[in-house]
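Journal club prep, notes for RB
We'll compare a predicted complex against what the paper describes. Inputs for the fe (iii) ion case:
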Amino acid sequence: MHVWENSPDAGPQPLQNLEQWEQFLVQRYPEPPQVPELHDSSHEPERQQKSAVQFRDYRAQVRPGVKEFYRLNHANQTIEFVLSRKRRFLGLNRTRMTVWEAMEFLNTLVDDSDPDTDLTQIEHLMQTAEAIRRDGHPRWFVLTGLIHDLGKILCLWGEPQWAVVGDTFPVGCAYSDKVVFPEFFPNNPDFQIPAYQTSCGIYEDGCGLDKVHMSWGHDEYLCHVVKDYLPPESLYVIRYHSFYAAHRDGAYRHLLNDLDRQMMPWVRKFNPYDLYSKGESRPDVPRLSGFYQDLINEYFPQSLKW
Ligand code: FE
Ligand code: FE
């Protein structure tokens, strides 16, 4: 067990660093998504099969720290916890910072990363953005890559790892077995509440994800910080990029509406840049700073409320 140096109140932290969660995602999803668009269900059986293979594999490969991290995440992400975090953080009354300052702040996260081989947080962000830029995508999509993980600064405010990273999932309705390690959900107090364990739970069929409370983490928080400045596609990617059960495994379709079906392909398009750009060469941060400062200034005012 490792105590996160920046989070003295967060208790023992099972991951040595946040990268371990993302490394596990790459093990679990070794290939870019070959998922058809949501309105096309013709490849459904194929996808089911692939999930079954992944289901077997990830258990064999998982590090004990990562498994413990998911155990804590699944046991503690109750609807009450999610609402408490929304009250705590979505007022955005902690500080004011520019996007660039937030990147530098995130970089102060002290964990057990190896400085010689592991990327800094800024390097991961730039690497993701650069990979998107290289493929000629629109500027808002490049910017989305640059900022998508800034919500991880929650760690610097004492939040435990299981409340900052990890695959997200809806709370207040039945858990899908497509969520990683579903066997940990019976430890969640919400599991005992029958109203939360029907397939729609407290929601309505087809209500749309905007009406659904997701497990709390860096996605939802950052989406609120930037919500007035970016196009809807960008906000959608930021908000759901960790919702692997939906964007990789097609779960929770009954909660989606037309807007979700229209937007989800962007999350799928984004995901490979997030997961698979890490093997590429280290970005030259000083050289790229000018380009990215300009891009930030194109969309954001001088300072934002965090
Ligand atoms: Fe992320
Ligand atoms: Fe990321």
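Talking point for the session: Strands lie at 2-3, 12-13, 96-97, 304-305.
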